[in-house]
């Protein structure tokens, strides 16, 4: 186990009707806020009216910025920064899923920075301060409600990049599983894949003697594998929705990082899919992760066997270790298909002609290489994309 420091300052407010507390929670941190949300679903569902009533009851003044899209756009972030500076906003409340939260985080750091907010995402500047933010979560998937990260897309250059700082961790996350009942099935499935990918990025590590966090990772994965089909079959099943929502937070609040080093190459490769054709992040990960594991499984065959046996219930006597590992990957791919997700690039209309551009554009995380479990160079990334066809 590696040395580590762990701290997460987000307060979780979880359960039925908790959205009614949003005004009182916001008032602890600000008196004039930016209310940030997506394309209008919260208005159709009635949640918007509940939020406004709660803010008014707490005498919280607010300005609004809606219109966040999946794979949140840099253009809207810049609009939010201008609005905050003009209106003297001292807190940001995001109501939605990971895209809204990531956009709010970008606005929070950009509004108190003299340069362009994209500097934080292209790595040319470090985050030193931020306006505080809070979350009313409606989509369990990205885990951004308690994470240190934010991912933004520059639509002009088709670059999707991440920034990371503890200063972006929300002060609170209000989480009512009932608010996820109305999610479309595809969005629920994409969220499940996103959560699983966050866990697997941490699970595939070169750190030794990390059985405790291995078991936490495996439990989180098995929770999603068990509950996602239930939620898809019965969208208003509170128990399964609650399990998924809490698992999504634990998957990305850095607890599962402790004592180990994650990989994140599958995420970086998937960002190129999202930047290129706007595919939902979870759907892209359902394509890339099986291809990635098929490419690297021999690097640590014992870990892949453990993954197959503990997570996917492959019998230890299934075959030789290589067959067992490959069966685990196959069962993961079958699971993604069973919940309605794509598992190859053809399904999202990406062809081999785009590979060179994607490989060139892919953000490197380890010097001139990608990833930590296995260092991936340009040809490796291209080979993984070929496996994903």
Biggest sheet details: 6 strands, parallel
From the N-terminal CA to the C-terminal CA, the straight-line distance is: 37 Å
Residues in β-strands, percent: 5-15%
N-to-C SSE string, H for helix and E for strand: EHEHHEHEHHEEEEHHHHHHHHH
At CATH level 3, the topology of the largest domain is Dehydroquinate synthase-like, alpha domain
- Helix percent band: 40-55%
- Number of helical regions: 15
Q: How large is the radius of gyration?
A: 20 Å
Structural shape: globular
Query: What's the CATH architecture of the largest domain?
Result: Up-down Bundle
Unreliable spans: none
**Sequence of strands across the biggest β-sheet:** 1-8-5-4-2-3
Mean pLDDT: 97
Indicate the topology.
Elements: E1 11-14, H1 22-27, E2 32-37, H2 41-45, H3 47-57, E3 61-65, H4 74-87, E4 91-96, H5 98-110, H6 118-121, E5 133-137, E6 149-154, E7 159-164, E8 172-175, H7 185-203, H8 211-233, H9 238-250, H10 265-277, H11 281-296, H12 301-312, H13 321-338, H14 355-361, H15 378-387
Parallel strand pairs: 1-8, 2-3, 2-4, 4-5, 5-8
Antiparallel strand pairs: 6-7
Helix pairs in contact: 4-5, 7-8, 7-9, 7-11, 8-9, 8-12, 10-11, 11-13, 11-15, 12-13, 14-15
Which properties best describe this structure?
389 residues; alpha/beta; Rossmann fold; Dehydroquinate synthase-like, alpha domain; 6-stranded parallel β-sheet; two-stranded antiparallel sheet; 8 strands; 47% helix; 11% strand
């Amino acid at each position: 186990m590696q040395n580590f420091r762990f701290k997460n300052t987000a307060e979780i407010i979880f359960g039925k009707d908790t959205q009614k507390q949003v005004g009182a929670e916001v008032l602890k941190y600000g008196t004039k806020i930016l209310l940030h949300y997506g394309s209008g679903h919260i208005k159709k569902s009635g949640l918007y009216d509940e939020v406004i009533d709660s803010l008014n009851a707490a005498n919280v003044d607010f300005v609004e910025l809606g219109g966040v899209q999946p794979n949140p756009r840099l253009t809207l972030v810049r609009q939010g920064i201008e609005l905050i500076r003009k209106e003297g906003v001292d807190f940001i409340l995001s109501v939605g899923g990971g895209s809204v939260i990531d956009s709010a985080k970008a606005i929070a750091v950009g509004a108190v920075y003299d340069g362009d907010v994209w500097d934080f995402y292209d790595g040319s500047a470090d985050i030193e301060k931020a306006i505080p933010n809070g979350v009313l979560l409606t989509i369990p998937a990205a885990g951004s409600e308690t994470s240190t990260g934010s991912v933004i897309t520059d639509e002009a250059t088709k670059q999707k990049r991440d920034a990371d700082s503890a200063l972006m961790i929300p002060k609170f996350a209000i989480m009512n599983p009932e608010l996820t009942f109305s999610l479309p099935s595809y969005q629920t499935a994409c969220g499940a894949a996103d959560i699983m990918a966050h866990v697997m990025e941490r699970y595939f590590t070169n750190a030794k003697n990390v059985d405790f966090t291995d078991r936490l990772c495996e439990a989180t994965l098995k929770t999603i594998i068990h509950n996602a089909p239930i939620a898809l079959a019965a969208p208003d099943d509170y128990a399964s929705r609650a399990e998924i929502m809490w698992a999504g937070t634990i998957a990305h609040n850095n607890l599962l990082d402790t004592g180990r080093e994650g990989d994140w190459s599958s995420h970086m490769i998937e960002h190129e899919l999202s930047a290129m054709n706007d595919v939902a992040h979870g759907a892209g990960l359902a394509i890339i992760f099986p291809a990635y594991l098929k490419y690297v499984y021999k690097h640590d065959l014992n870990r892949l066997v453990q993954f197959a046996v503990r997570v996917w219930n492959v019998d230890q006597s299934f075959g030789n270790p290589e067959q067992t590992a490959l069966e685990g990957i196959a069962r993961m791919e079958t699971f993604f298909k069973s919940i309605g997700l794509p598992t190859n690039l053809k399904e999202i209309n990406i062809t081999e002609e785009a590979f060179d551009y994607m490989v060139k554009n892919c953000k490197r995380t380890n010097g001139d290489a990608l990833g930590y479990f296995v260092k991936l160079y340009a040809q490796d990334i291209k080979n993984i994309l070929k496996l994903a066809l």
